[in-house]
Design brief:
The protein has 186 residues and is an alpha+beta fold. It is 41% helix and 11% strand. It has six helices and six strands, in the order αββαββαααββα. Strands 1-2 form a two-stranded antiparallel sheet. The chain has a two-stranded antiparallel ribbon with strand order 3-4. Strand 1 and strand 2 form a beta hairpin. The protein starts with 12 loop residues before the first helix and ends with a helix. The relative contact order is 0.04.
């Protein structure tokens, strides 16, 4: 049964016991006469994963952030909590970060073979170690469609996102030369 009293009457458990219920014959009976009221904390709904009981804590990532980045920030803060957990308890990562880790483990086992095969194919095609090195060194670059903040989509060079870490955004200057001129003036 779900009861909800007006705000001022919801102050304490004792106040809830004073709520009155109407019987079939119309008499008013305090709730404390027909029910035992107590306040206690209970665990959330327990579920099983890999035959182990778990409590799931979930969060959403704010716009502009990626789950692995947030995970990397939270893990050091969780280290102290993990160290204090009683035996048999643990904190695990799940969701997209867990799936990404599984995929990386699968790729790491075959990556050396893929690298050797790729270099062999390139070497057979270009028949030169220096040319093979040039082809392999420029592999992260590609020509594709860029999506700019103003909504235009020109063709340009695409580079791996990790190459932008720590890079200055020069968009507001309108180009590389204007950025260099501004730096020289400063």
């Amino acid at each position: 049964m779900l009861l909800r009293s007006p705000g001022p009457e919801r102050r304490s458990l004792g106040d809830i016991g004073d709520l009155t219920l109407a019987t079939r014959d119309g008499r008013q009976v305090p709730l404390s006469q027909v029910a035992h009221l107590e306040s206690r904390n209970e665990d959330a709904v327990l579920k099983r994963y890999n035959r182990e009981t778990y409590i799931r804590v979930q969060g959403d990532v704010i716009d502009g952030k990626q789950p692995p980045d947030i995970h990397a920030q939270i893990v050091p803060e969780l280290a102290a909590i993990k160290a204090r957990l009683p035996p048999g308890y643990r904190i695990d990562t799940a969701g997209s970060v867990e799936e990404s880790e599984k995929a990386m483990k699968a790729l790491v086992t075959v990556f050396p073979l893929m690298l050797i095969m790729t270099l062999t194919v390139i070497m057979l095609q270009v028949r030169s170690f220096t040319t093979m090195f040039m082809v392999f060194a420029t592999a992260p670059l590609g020509i594709g469609t860029l999506r700019l903040a103003d909504g235009t989509a020109p063709k340009g060079f695409l580079v791996e996102q990790a190459g932008l870490d720590g890079a200055a955004d020069i968009t507001r200057f309108g180009g590389w030369r204007a950025y260099l001129a501004d730096r020289a003036a400063a």
